[in-house]
Amino acid sequence: MRTLYLSNKGCIGIFVYYSILFITSVSLVIIYFYQGEINDSDVYIYAPLSGLFGTCIYYIRKLYKDCFLDDKISTDKQFLKQSATMIYFVTRPFFAVAFSFIVVIALKAGFKIVATPQSDLNPLNFIYACIFISFFCGFRVGTLITKFENFEITK
Q1: Are 22 and 61 a contacting pair, CB within 8 Å?
Q2: Which of 4-18, 27-41, 89-103, 116-130 has the highest mean pLDDT?
Q3: Of 92, 116, 128, 138, which is the most exposed, with the fewest CB atoms less than 10 Å away?
Q4: Burial of residue 58, with CB atoms counted within 10 A of its CB: 0-12 exposed, 13-18 middle, 19 or more buried
Q5: Which is more confidently placed, 73 or 106?
Q6: How many CB atoms lie within 10 A of CB 1?
Q7: Three-state secondary structure call for residue 39
Q8: Which residues pair with residue 73 across a beta bridge?
Q9: DSSP tally for the chain: helices H, then strands E
Q10: E strand map for the chain
């Protein structure tokens, strides 16, 4: 059983942090969608926000289960373990945003490779695809990091 080394204040602080990020990211996506004209470069706004609110949903749920349902919290005064746990949770949204940018770049590169002069990429459909995939990358950012750690090129 995995134990989270958090104080009660640390646990509440992380909940507040993720709740603020969640409300902000969802609000900004809604505001941007209803502002009118969508440009090609807007994908660099929508995709990271989508990844951000995906990771917020996952980690709010994870913290709720670990802190309140499964009682996996250790309040031992182990400063190093508590600091590492706080850094773990605080940095996850940044990983989600970074992976969202990678999704956009990968999708753009893929479309450039398979595109012909006659086929033109619909910018709105591209943005929707990036939002969709970025959300799942953000939601499963921990799994993605583990997959990258275990990735090995064999001869």
Answers
A1: no
A2: 89-103
A3: 116
A4: buried
A5: 106
A6: 4
A7: coil
A8: 4
A9: 5, 2
A10: 4-5, 73-74
Cα(30)–Cα(134) distance, integer angstroms: 16
* Of 45, 66, 68, 145, residue with least CA distance to 99: 145
- Of residues 4, 143, 148, the one with CA closest to residue 69: 4
Question: Would you tell me how many other CB atoms lie within 10 Å of the CB of residue 44?
Answer: 16
* Direct distance between the N- and C-terminal alpha carbons of the chain, in angstroms, rounded to an integer: 36
In a 13 Å sphere around the CA of 151, the CA atoms on its Cβ side amount to 7
C-alpha 123/C-alpha 134 separation (Å) is 16
Residue 52: half-sphere exposure toward Cβ, Cα within 13 Å: 23
Contact 46, 130 (CB under 8 A): yes
Which residues have C-beta within 8 Å of that of residue 135, sequence separation ≥ 6?
50, 51, 53, 54
Angle between helix axes 79-114 and 8-33 (nearest 10 degrees) is: 20
Cα separation, 82 vs 66, in Å, equals 15
pLDDT tens profile 1-15: 567 777 778 888 899
Report CA 79 to chain centroid distance, whole Å. 27
pTM of the model: 0.80
Short-list 29, 151, 20, 10, CA closest to 100: 29
